[in-house]
Amino acid sequence: MKKNMKYKNLISVLVFSGLGLFNSCIDDFADLNSNPSTITKPNIRFLFTQCETAFQPGDYSQWFYGFDYMSNWVQATVPGGGNSNKLNVITQTGCGYQVNELLRYANEIKYQVSLLGEAEKAKHEYIPYLCNPMLVYLSMEDADMYGSRQYSEAEMARYGGTLKPKYDTQPELFDLWLKQLDETIQYLTEKKPVDILGTQDFVYKGNLAKWAKFANSLKLRIAARLINIDKERAIKIVNDASKSPAGFLETLEDDFVYNKGKRDNNWNNDISVAAGSRQLINFMINNRDPRLFYIFQKNDYNSNVVQGFFDQKRALPSYVEKNVEYTLDANGKKVFKNWKEPGEPWVRYYGLPCQVELNKNPAYDEYFDPNNSIFCLFANDGAKKTYTPIAYRNAESIKGLLTYTYPDVPGVKPVQDKEPYGWYGLYFSAGETNLLRAEFKLLGATLPKTAQEYLSAGVELSVRGYNNVAGLNHLPYYDITYVNDKHDKSIKLTEAQVQDMLTHDVYKLTGSQDENLEKVYIQQYIHYLMAPMDLFVTSRRSGIPMSGSTLLPYEQFDPVLGDKFLIPRRFPVSAPNQSDILYDITIAAYEAQNYTYSGEAFNTPSTLNSQRVWYDKGPDFGKGPKK
């Protein structure tokens, strides 16, 4: 396999789960009449907890190696040093087989249930069905960038299966996913089993109705991926799902919010995060989108730091100074008075331009400070302290247990936010299901509400969903403001912000079909900013951001090359070693998809742009929705 993962010993699984990996998932072993350390038969309920733990849509390697590429390519983010002319050249990736560890636990759960007597089997047999939507979720994202994947026969050797699992093609995968989801929905809605998991299910706490909604809602993601290759089937999937007794994720309480424990930080390694793109940050500010506060981090230029620049008679970046209201004292020195409209926290967010090699253009020094001489103040002893005026991704929205130091002038004792909170991730939500239904309503699906109703609900629920996990993650500036800055404001969502946001025209479907679709796709794009794979898929299938847009424009990375500056549509594949027992079937899978997998061309932008995964028949980047 592309991603090596050791199979965990089932006895260790039982003991580790039972002894307190999760504070809310501890069972009483008294009735087992056995020392937990000697138990040899795994407890299926504990196995399910481990199965949920293995559900990892964005691990360290993906954020470190793959996700930056995706979000940079679709102009959501820009590296802090600016885009280079090698932006479209891939050096290494960390995506490919997220689903395999989950498959191991899911297959083991199914096997252990099969060994039970009839009475116990009747109580436990619903549990394997709960694994299906998680398997579909991860397998879908694996296939998004590579196409054919080993899935239906994978991780089955332990149970008499093959050591050479076949590659399922994307058409086969779509059929398999829909079948698995239908089986889960049918079992949960018709059999109506009584839950025995309780808090061993740390996502939905044994609420089986929510699991059914989760499974049914995933059909919308499948349909979205089919829209450019089989629109008729995509619409039918949506219509059928809308009639299901399972329903969709509709409220914040339905959201798939993921937390593995109060001390879990998602993963241990540190990552570097990119900055928001200028056009995206400006769009979110102009349209008062509070998701800005949770996806990106406030810059370092608070009122104290601005005053520090005034005191040392150092120039502020022009885009910062234009938002500063100041007076002059008797000596003609600038004194910070207040922030201009829209005020804090909006004035603490600025993005970077996307065009390549701008960091070499002196006209853009106030964005990139290539000589490390602009974004700094000096202490009395001459020591330099650097500040960033740019808004980077909010790292604590990606992983927990981080320490944040509030910015201030040199010489001020640092104030830090270092409370050890675990990490919460928003993986699937009512905001998403409404935004997808807004799209399908515009495209002709038979749905009970108007596209406007779905869009309005989708935007509001997306904002509230992000605010919810921001509070759970205790992001800097959420619970408290910086104590030493009287002008600082909280990023906690207010009702006034929600109502103000929804008054803006970008959230109103009052134009042509194409104009309305662009508005819906922009909102999907923003919703997926913390899920770069889905962000990339959305941009790839919709052509959003769009060149010439008056809302969220796509900028040419290289004005000279224009459309000839090709952006990859998938990640590269390479031939395994010939000694690999999977060599023949892997090469056959590549060749069946017409992938180049060796030689100098396997990893070129032109190869990765033209040799696309099966369902990727969407428009070129920046071209807008397919007509």
Compile the SSE list and pairings.
Elements: H1 10-18, H2 44-53, H3 60-73, E1 77-78, H4 99-114, H5 118-124, H6 127-146, E2 149-150, E3 167-168, H7 170-191, H8 208-226, H9 231-242, E4 256-258, E5 275-276, H10 278-286, H11 291-295, H12 303-311, H13 318-321, E6 324-328, E7 334-339, H14 365-368, E8 376-378, E9 384-386, E10 404-405, E11 416-417, E12 425-428, H15 430-442, H16 451-473, H17 495-502, H18 513-527, H19 532-542, H20 583-592, H21 605-610
Antiparallel strand pairs: 1-5, 2-3, 4-12, 6-7, 8-9, 10-11
Helix pairs in contact: 1-2, 2-4, 2-6, 3-19, 4-6, 6-7, 6-8, 7-8, 8-9, 8-15, 15-16, 15-18, 18-19
What would you say this structure looks like, in words?
It contains 21 helices and 12 strands. The protein is mainly alpha-helical and 627 residues long. The strands form 6 sheets. Strands 1-5 form a two-stranded antiparallel ribbon. α8 (208-226) packs antiparallel against α9 and α15 runs antiparallel to α18 (513-527). The longest helix is centred in the last third of the chain and has 23 residues, at 451-473. Residues 1-39 have low confidence and may be disordered.
List the defining traits of the structure above.
single chain; mainly alpha; two-stranded antiparallel sheet; 21 helices; globular; disordered N terminus
Number of helices: 21
- Biggest pleated-sheet summary: 2 strands, antiparallel
Binned, the helix content reads 25-40%
Radius of gyration: 26 Å
**End-to-end C-alpha gap:** 39 Å
Strand share of the residues? 5-15%
Strands side by side in the biggest sheet: 1-5
Number of strands: 12
